[in-house]
Protein: SDR family oxidoreductase
Organism: Antrihabitans cavernicola
Amino acid sequence: MLSCKVVVITGASSGVGAETARHLSAAGAKVVLGAQIGLPDGAVVQTDVTDRQQVTALVQNAVNLHGRIDVMINNAGLMPLSPHEMERFDEREQAIDVNIKGVLWGSAAALPHFKQQRSGQFVNVSSVAGHAVNPGGAIYSATKYSMRVISEVLRQEVKPYNIRTTVISPGAVDTEVPGSVKADGVAASVADFYRDTAIPANSFARCVAFAIGQPENVDINEILFRPTNQQR
Ligand SMILES: NC(=O)c1ccc[n+]([C@@H]2O[C@H](COP(=O)([O-])OP(=O)(O)OC[C@H]3O[C@@H](n4cnc5c(N)ncnc54)[C@H](OP(=O)(O)O)[C@@H]3O)[C@@H](O)[C@H]2O)c1
């Protein structure tokens, strides 16, 4: 079911995006990666997801290379945990741009192709933080709750075109994401939590493979998973 699917992944230079690219590629998929550094072969396209034109160009590049796009994985994201009183406005704004606008631009870029093909699948990345909140997590949780809102609205809107919509909500997965926590006093505790709790990025890649590997008439809408020893 995976072989020959054309899959575009944003934020693929590290973490679950890079691991999913490896996993799907090994299963025979044709992956086209959006990363903040591009490569000349066209399979890795320099893409800042906050720039709508760059995201449109990434998807168009996949269609030019392979004639179609089957899966759009809106994965790029930042996790700027900090309490309101620290007033870390710049990183909050950046997270809103990457985590929300980046997904809107990715969806908008793929949708015309999916409609024309009358097939396609969005995979949007939420989080356990899109299902529960903690102090310091207002902006991150807001962006990740919004993934579920945006994806469910999208799911309903694109039904007539035979398009599938999946939200994946991971718990702690071992990636570079703790590095996006910069706030003094927060970064160290998040790093400790990840060191003690996180599971390998392949856990996420296997969820993606499951969701996109289903028969065309099966639409896996939500997957929520955690490390077995993660409390919330
Ligand atoms: N790991 C977890 O525990 C966990 C749990 C729940 C949800 N998630 C979600 O999983 C997704 C992937 O994160 P990850 O855990 O794999 O972390 P990661 O290793 O830090 O990967 C995040 C990726 O997003 C990219 N990115 C950041 N800003 C970007 C921009 N403006 N344009 C394009 N790409 C940009 C980064 O590229 P550069 O490195 O080049 O900046 C990087 O490749 C995120 O949406 C995150 O919220 C992760």
